[in-house]
Amino acid sequence: MITGFVVKSESGSNEPLRNRVRASSFWRRLLANPAAWLGGFLMLLLITTALSAPVIAFYPYDKINPTQSLQPPSWQHPFGTDKLGRDMFSRVVFGAQLALQIGLVALVIALGGGLVIGLASGYLKGWTDGVLMGLMDLMLSFPPVLLALIITYVLGPGFGSLMLAVGLSPVPGLARLVRGQVLSLSAKDYVLAAQAIGASPSRIMLRTILPNILTPVIVLGTVLFPEAILAGAGLSFIGLGAQPPSPDWGVLLLDGRTYLVEAPWLVNFPGLAILLVVLGSNLSGTALREALSPKP
Amino acid sequence: MFIYLLKRLMRLLGLWLALITLTFGLRLVIPGDPVEALFVNQPTDPQVIAEVRHEFGLDQPLPVQYFNYLANVVQGDLGKSLITRRPVLSEISDRYFKTVLLAGAGLILALIFGIGSGVLAVWIKNRAFETGLTALNLVLLSMPGFWLGLLLLDWFSVQLGWLPVLSENELVQLILPALTLGLISGALLSRVVKAQLLEVLNQDYIKTARAKGLTGRAVLIRHALKNALTPVLTLVGLQFGALMGGAIIVENVFAWPGLGQLAVQAINQRDYPIIQGLVLLTATTYVVVNTIVDLLYHWLDPRIQKPG
Known about the structure:
The complex is a heterodimer of chains A (296) and B (308).
Chain A: H1 17-31, H2 34-51, H3 53-56, H4 88-124, H5 126-140, H6 144-155, H7 159-168, H8 171-186, H9 189-196, H10 201-237, H11 249-256, H12 265-292
Helix pairs in contact in A: 1-12, 2-4, 2-12, 4-5, 4-7, 4-8, 4-10, 4-12, 5-8, 6-7, 7-10, 8-10, 9-10, 10-11, 10-12, 11-12
Chain B: H1 2-29, H2 34-38, H3 46-55, H4 62-74, H5 88-124, H6 127-141, H7 145-159, H8 170-200, H9 204-211, H10 216-254, H11 259-269, H12 272-300
């Protein structure tokens, strides 16, 4: 194996050969994996649906039409209509926007919080480490849903606190992972070298340590997106997240469950939407993980 | 072992004190005064507000309130509900046991499904079965529990009519929610059990057992399974927490009177003593279960010397 010597490429860049070898085999492994294709397709479907919702939805998601109450799926209403005659297809399609938003915002909060706390704790050590990790241990003593409930209680129910709740819940686990990685890297020669030439702690944390712990963080990050969507839908389903008439998929299931017998399409289409999105991101995540850290 | 036990118990005690402090703090971090919020829509005599505040001990200095809270909790008194004025413990306890019962039943089913399907996949070594199981596990893990619950309710109670939608018999009422939780959690266990078994089967001592003439199945059950299950144990503790959380959401589908409904109601009404009690009780259960799991793990596999 070639380790770390530098070749001059035609463009004259000094990119270590190792990195390029790694990158090309990463793509090769990823594209050879059927899970990556199916997962990628489902994620693309989510993103295009969310972005083009106003175009592909036939009706506004909150357009009430009492004469069309509880219609089964048909050409006019592919996913049927609800009690108030609202078009379920439009509601599910607009719900994709909210799902994508929950997943992305939660991912940013979780990764940001986990990285900042983990880096500070692992690199600064001392009392910062003690206080931060004590706090993280305390947060880990709550089952995840309970942690989300506490955050909702503090902030009050709503879509904003839902995103915060599902974003903050995984922070302690992530922070501990990052801290562990940082501790094991702190003793490496290149970190000591950076210290020796007088780099500031923030520079070492961001420029020397951070790039080297990104792989395990991405690996864990891939499970955050689907988990956030599941948890968010769950909170909305018990009435603590998005509030009606929001087309959030959890709200749609909550609305529809009263009509389980006479109008099963009210729960089945939003349920299927959640399943496909979570399945898609789980498949993409697994494929990404396998391509990043191949088993020998 | 004894030293380890002592260390774990000390840690548990420390964590529990921190938990009590945090639940006490829950009242302070919410915006606004909880008592004034009670009378928010009616003009109220300040005298009445002062009386209610006195009734809940909120007129005392904060450190005094804290030590009162601590002393009360240690004696098993979690205060009383701001809304119903009934003791928190009697409001919560019945629902708490229902949630723990549901989570426990879900865990038992998860272990049966998870270990059963994981061992079966390795045992029969059938490509189609393995692919099918992997796909099923993936779908179950991607499914929102409450939708799976609604589907099961529709199939078993409405379409097939095997189970009543509502039953007087608690055990009958428990079947579907426990099945919902057990299927999802079992899918996770199934994955881990299968992976662990395959890994253990590659070890030298398995090759030795094979070399001395034991059949594949004897090796699988007597030698591999026990060693493969030890790491699964850690997961069981964590899964119990996930199941308690899952129970809080899934109970909504099945009219199972657990903590979920109470939690939602208390959050909407800002009934802080109920929230405090609920958080403290649930977290304590989770921490105790995980400590027991840790001790069991340590006992099963003494090679692991965890730093105290």
